Amino acid sequence: MIKSKVIFLFAVMVTTNGLLHAQTSAKDTGKVTIIQDEKVKELLANHIEINAKAPIKGYRIKIHFGADKNKAKEIKADFITKYPDVPAYEKYDQPNFNIRVGDFRTKLEAYKFLKQVQADFPASFLVQDEIEMPKLE
Question: Would you give the distance in Å from CA 77 to the centre of its chain?
Fold first, then answer.
């Protein structure tokens, strides 16, 4: 990830070197004309695409793990009815079915929600995970 950013910045510096011109005249309007190669736009588009696919590290609350698939689905459904605004994820890590909830960017946010959830799911605990991009309000 960092390597792609360094390559991108180096490519931008190389391709724009000598292509940025500012002209001054008696009728200076303060307008700057930027002439850039099309490859700069391509590199920028590639950079944006790569970063969009990059996983976001954050936290979730694991409310259940066990070998019984039906029990896991039951707990997930129970959670969704109690907390409809919080996403729930079901993941199979052989031999266990895991139910993880929430998409928290900070440990503090996750911990606050953990305390709230522990009333209904006392065995729940905090885990670090790759999360979905939180929805902007």
Answer: 25
Tens digits of per-residue pLDDT, 37-59?
A: 889 888 888 888 887 777 889 99
Q: Which tokens sit at 128? A: 């670090």
114 and 74 together in one domain: yes
Question: pTM of this prediction?
Answer: 0.60
> Does residue 92 sit in the same domain as residue 115?
yes
Instruction: Look at residue 137 and tell me if it is in a domain.
Output: no
Radius of gyration of the chain (CA): 24
CA 97 – CA 65 distance, rounded (Å): 5
Contact by Cβ (8 Å): 80, 88:
yes
Q: Please indicate, yes or no, whether residues 69 and 124 belong to a single structural domain of this protein.
A: yes
Euclidean distance between CA atoms 124 and 137, whole angstroms: 28
Contact between 101 and 117 under an 8 Å Cβ cutoff? The reply is yes
Q: Which two tokens stand for residue 111?
A: 């911990």
* Residue 81 to residue 66: CA distance in whole angstroms: 21
